[in-house]
Amino acid sequence: MDDISRAYLIFGSEDYLINTYKKRLLEALLIRPEDTQDMNFNRFTGPGVDINAMIDAIGTMPFFAERRVILVENSDFFKSSNDIFSKALESIPETSVVIFAEKNVDKRLSAYKYISKNYKVKELNMLTGPDLEKWAIGEKLGGAGLRITRDAWQTFLDITTADKNMTNMSYMNNELEKLISYCNGRDSITTDDVRAIVSGYHDDSVFALLDGIAAGDSRTAMKCYDNLLLSNVEPEKILHMIIWEFDRILMAGELMQDGMSYSEVARHTGMQDWQIKKHDKAGHFRSFPPHRAKIAKEKAADIQYKIRTGSMDAKIGCELLINELLLH
User: Fold this and answer.
1) Which end of the chain is more exposed for a tag (fewer CB within 10 A), N or C?
2) pTM for this one?
3) Which residue, 221, 213, 281, 197, is CA-closest to 246?
4) How far is CA 292 from the centre of its chain?
5) Does 242 share its domain with 305?
6) pLDDT tens digits for 81-128?
7) Final residue of a domain: which of 82, 107, 123?
8) E strands along the chain, which residues?
């Protein structure tokens, strides 16, 4: 990695891009955050960061290595004036690299002005226009060997940007991952594919459906299913959303069994911390341990195959799956 700066500030409104940029930066510095035994890596998280401990870490010489890396996340050090912090920025040794990943940044502060003048700053907000297309069509879909028609792309945008307050890159990334999974084995994505899979803003309804299944509450489960139908969500789309959630429960559940924290699971799966915590608090990892989640996913995939091949009606197949899951 050429031209390494002693400090980086990554901030903006788009968490997905911040996390992606942070991960790439750490990889370029040969740091694996999940490796808690790395003697040359320190991590500080949250507004309660001990500033003295952070300063001590920054000033500590690396152990048989070229540099020490310090990651500071959501500390709010760039939110309000702090003379101690400002002085710390001015005295970062050449043997340390400090990465600040922040949500709240006040550009009027001396700390921001100093780091933007002397080090590297990256502001990451929601992509738009050609930049969004380059990321979604070029990197995400193109990287998976898929093309998308212009009409299909416009349909994707119409669905995912319908509510401007809800639109974000993490949500778009999830929907693109669903499309990639759904169109596996093909080389292009059509408008029908997008309409069948991209789920709009029904995640909470599907989550409530899973809650009903987990609790063995057929009344709640079917009520949630009926509400999705009344919202004009196609049965095959509901089925794919169920498969998607079980895939996430399976991946995260296996790592949770290994004793990983929410943040560690998030880094391994691409999920957000709050999504994993939400599944955990709802009891989904207990109700759907890996072996059961795998069976549920396989059953759903089998029904999905029958629907696609025309041997089963989509509505009947979706209801059959829900009832089968309720029996276990």
Assistant:
1) N
2) 0.66
3) 213
4) 24
5) yes
6) 999 999 999 999 999 999 999 988 999 999 999 999 999 999 999 999
7) 123
8) 7-11, 41-45, 68-73, 96-102, 120-123, 147-148, 188-189
